[in-house]
Design a protein that fits this description.
CATH class of chain A: Mainly Alpha
Membrane topology (chain A): Multi-pass membrane protein
Radius of gyration of chain B: 20 Å
Distance between the termini of chain A: 54 Å
Number of domains of chain A: 1
Structural class of chain B: mainly alpha
Radius of gyration of chain A: 19 Å
CATH architecture of chain A: Up-down Bundle
Function (chain A): Membrane-anchoring subunit of succinate dehydrogenase (SDH).
Keywords (chain A): Electron transport, Heme, Iron, Membrane, Metal-binding, Transmembrane, Transmembrane helix, Transport, Tricarboxylic acid cycle
Number of strands of chain A: 0
CATH topology of chain A: 3 helical TM bundles of succinate and fumarate reductases
Structural class of chain A: mainly alpha
CATH architecture of chain B: Up-down Bundle
Subunit structure (chain A): Part of an enzyme complex containing four subunits: a flavoprotein, an iron-sulfur protein, plus two membrane-anchoring proteins, SdhC and SdhD.
CATH superfamily of chain A: Fumarate reductase/succinate dehydrogenase, transmembrane subunit
Helix content of chain B: over 70%
Oligomer: heterodimer
Largest interface: A-B, 34 and 32 residues
CATH topology of chain B: 3 helical TM bundles of succinate and fumarate reductases
Subcellular location (chain A): Membrane
Chain lengths: ~120, ~130
């Protein structure tokens, strides 16, 4: 017992058996977003409202494009797991499954769409 | 059977019973801001998609994002994202096993609300 880590003792507990992984994912993605989101606010915020040619040139540069791509992907993965807890708290039965599946699909679709659009803009 | 009285049993006290406190309100706001950010996120992804199509579609999306409606959503989301970020840092601090004393928890709540307002105004001034 003395040699077991806290994580090892928590893994596989609870009714879903996957709460530890869920929590760890939220922690990792929140640390990543704590860095990415301020960078995105100031890069995206600077160019929003500019004409088309300037926007294309701006996201042709590596830094704004990489920040935008990472922010969109990590945000939607973070949202996917966050909204799951929201749904689990307030919705029950079949509707709970329907909503969770819909939100997972929406999250991956938005992340994929954003990634494609930024890549197409950048290249 | 165990399920005979389902639905008619007394419930343990929940949100409506308790007086709102800084700690509880800031916790609820964390959830509301995090999920409400979906709207701005979808708008921003749509803006990128439109920009990747070309100038015409870009004009449409750009007009929506820079309209009064877009301004309202994006400015509200600017506060929401700063708030959610600070509240998330507070969660990471709690996860490290610190900050559970009542006075510390209350101070963290003031910090999250005050900090998010200050950061929102500063960002609006800089951008």
């Amino acid at each position: 017992m003395a040699y077991m880590t806290d994580r090892k003792r928590a893994e596989g507990m609870g009714s879903a058996k996957s709460g530890t992984e869920h929590h760890w994912h939220m922690m990792v993605s929140s640390v990543a977003l704590a860095i990415l989101v301020p960078l995105f606010i100031f890069t995206f915020g600077r160019i929003l409202g500019a004409p088309y040619e300037e926007v294309v040139a701006y996201f042709g540069r590596p830094f704004p494009a990489i920040v935008a791509a990472l922010t969109v992907v990590v945000s939607f993965l973070h949202f996917k797991n966050g909204v799951q807890v929201l749904i689990e708290d307030y919705v029950h039965g079949t509707m709970r499954k329907v909503l969770i599946i819909a939100m997972i699909c929406l999250s991956y679709a938005a992340a994929g769409t954003g990634l494609f659009a930024i890549a197409r803009l950048a290249f | 059977m165990a399920d005979v009285n389902r639905g008619n049993r007394p419930l343990s006290p929940h949100l409506s019973i308790y007086r709102p406190q800084w700690t509880s309100v800031t916790s609820i706001l964390t959830r509301i801001t995090g999920n409400a950010l979906l709207l701005a996120s979808i708008l921003i992804v749509w803006w990128f998609l439109a920009a990747s199509y070309g100038p015409e579609y870009f004009e449409t999306a750009n007009a929506v994002l820079t309209s009064w409606f877009g301004d309202l959503v994006l400015f509200g989301s600017l506060w929401a994202v700063w708030y959610h970020l600070l509240a998330g840092l507070r969660h990471l601090y709690w996860d490290s096993g610190h900050g559970f004393e009542l006075d510390v928890a209350e101070k963290l709540a003031y910090g999250v609300v005050g900090g998010s307002l200050v950061l929102t105004i500063l960002t609006a001034l800089v951008l």
